[in-house]
User: What shape does this take?
Amino acid sequence: GLFWFSLEHIEAGLICYFFGLVGFWVSFAINNSYLPDIAYPEQQDRISAKGFSMGYIGSVILLLINLAMVMRPGFFGIEGEGAELLAMRYSFASVGIWWIAFSQYTFYHLPKGNKRVGERQRVILNGFRELKGVWKQLGHERRLKRYLGAFFVYSMAVQTVMLIAAYFGEEEVAWGSSEERTIGLIVSILLIQLVAILGATLTARASEAFGNIRTLVVINLIWVLICIYAYSVQSPMEFYIAAGFVGIVMGGIQALSRSTYSKFLPETKDTTSFFSFYDVAEKIGIIIGTFLYGFVAQFTGSMRNATIFLGLFFILGAFLLLRVKSKALQ
Assistant: This one.
């Protein structure tokens, strides 16, 4: 749908963008729920890390193709006036085709799940009921409840950093020219994606050696140092260094958070409801985190102060993780 995006019909474009986000996040929640179904607990850290790594590799490949298409449209046979704009439209279409193609592989190989007969007419209402049911079960799962509390706090900061990183680089880094700024931000996005592959892999190995909770605590403390370092970032090179470290811990904390949650789940066939709850907690955290970041930046007049403020959530997240008691995972 975004192939036909234009400022004259921006409402239609926003609707397509909205449904794109809905489709992405819902599919991500269902994708996460497969982890305990396809891997034993001792395999889940590595499988989760490999899943994120493959995802980052795929995103880098398509992003490079799209960037080449936009920057050198003639090479792809896109000629004439407005070639760059047309190349951008083709990029949107290529993303849709990419999703369709790789979805077929997924649909063919993954288990079909547990179908519930007679509930098709009450999908939305039952969805909220299932989330309520998961919340009630958390009262009997003290370890899982404590872990979700810690995850909610530090994920709030992680997701906020992911959303505002490019905007921070655009506003706070001295690029020199608008062209250098555009190229620099593109390079930093690619750098984060590439380094995240390494971060996810290293974190999975660290969890095997030191345990999930200890590894997550250390990653949160590294995030604190990154927030402190970001306060002083001025030059493009300093921003690239920050982006590199963000990539390492971003890939690691996402993969390990998912696998740790999977290991804490009670015996159940309804893993989708539990991971939907996990995803809802993450999305609520994004809303709160971005609001607080914007409020602090507006109130103090500096995005740098807001970045330091995010560091407090990582400190609190590390503290809450220490309260999660588990002989097997500490």
In short: DSSP finds eleven helices and no strands in the chain.
